[in-house]
Amino acid sequence: MICGDLVWAHQECEELFKGLAEVVRMDSPTRADFFAGLQPGGKYDGIVGIYRHNVSADHIGIFDRELVAKLPASVKWIAHNGAGYDQIDVAACKERGIFVSNTPGAVDDATATTALYLLISALRRFSHAERDLRLGKWKASHVPGAAHDLTQRTLFILGLGGIGQRLAELAHAFPMRVLYHNRRPAPNAPAWCEYVPAERLDEMLGVADVLSVHVPLKKETEGLVGEAMIRKLKKGAVIVNTARGKVIDEDAMIRALEDGHLGGVGLDVYPNEPEVNPRLLEFPNATLLPHMGTETCDSQKKMEIRALTNLRDFLTKGQGEDLVPEYKQ
């Protein structure tokens, strides 16, 4: 079942499942209609796998425990289109014997280049400058001392997965010094990526010019970048977030912008999307995007194909390649 948008990979979908499975589209306008279709004899009865895109939540809501409980017993695989899968209750899926996959790798380049743009704009104050130009002010409000080069600055990456490592490669070209923190050293990290263990985290946050956040949203990571971590950053540091809005304590971040502890922010994600805290709009040193991280036709097609391939592999091999980490613990 195609649950949500499939925009770029229609031909690939047909080729992947030809002679293997019937593909049906979720066309329910409401959650109640979707639940009705899942009942025995309903229009979705008998589905074994689901391709899921976040846009489906606009009509049927997220895949929470209630929704997962309504899925037919025949459903064994949910192939989510996206790296982040916080809209799926994985614990509820595991209890019902349903596997969940995502699309790591397919999003790395587009999200990393988004983070790089936010990093550059925040350090150079480009977003503010563009707003002034569009208002006919040229650069009357530009303060030269507030803008900084990237060269020889220190980038601290919180979560060196695929996206974080791609950003590290891009930033290293300037060059920037690159530090990172994971629970354990990343096995594929280049030698110039300096690992920061937990016992040195506070010390090394104090030398960072930019903190770029790349951790998934889970209960244990909600508010991870809070008052304490933000205040351990050097005065004038910049925070970049292309992960999930709730990973950062937004109130603490705003306080640090208000009192000048933070020199700027570059944000692509927010706690209650599509709502954006109006206070953020008032800061000239805030570069803001409406969750554009993977919004390229190239990345969207790669993500669609990867999610569909996970479903195809489940049907032909019994398992797709991109099981989310909760199934590997």
Order of helix and strand elements from N to C terminus: EHHEHHEHEHHEHEEHEHEHEEH
Largest sheet: 7 strands, parallel
Radius of gyration: 22 Å
Helix content: 25-40%
Structure explained in plain terms:
It is built from twelve helices and eleven strands. The strands form two sheets. The chain has a seven-stranded parallel β-sheet with strand order 7-6-5-8-9-10-11, sandwiched between helices. It is of the alpha/beta class and 329 residues long. The model has no long low-confidence stretch (mean pLDDT 96). Helix 1 (10-17) runs parallel beside helix 12. 33% of the residues lie in helices and 13% in strands.
What's the short version?
Belongs to the D-isomer specific 2-hydroxyacid dehydrogenase family. GO terms for molecular function: glyoxylate reductase (NADPH) activity; hydroxypyruvate reductase [NAD(P)H] activity; NAD binding. The protein is α/β, with parallel strands linked by helices and 329 residues long.
Notable characteristics:
single chain, oxidoreductase, 11 strands, 7-stranded parallel sheet, 4-stranded parallel sheet, 329 residues, alpha/beta
